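Data card: per-record layout.
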Amino acid sequence: MDVIGTIRNKSPVPWIDLYFHVDFFDADGKQADSGATEEYEFYLPANETASFKLSFTREFPEKNYAKAVARVVAAKDARRRW
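The structure for this 82-residue chain is written out next.
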């Protein structure tokens, strides 16, 4: 199962190696599953918008995945070496 969306970096700092967290909800709005993934090599310039695609293995029936909410929970400052 894939989650496709758009993300905006509102900060003055360019990001790299974004860590995404995704919550999945059923048609009734109840949380049905969650997942997390780190996207190495994903670069998002400061004050820019970019599309993303995250792939997950579905563990429950398809009806449990009516809606996905993705957010970035961590990212590295792309200007730093380490």
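Known properties of this structure: Strands lie at 2-8, 15-25, 31-44, 49-55, 67-77. The mean pLDDT is 94.

See the next section for split statistics.
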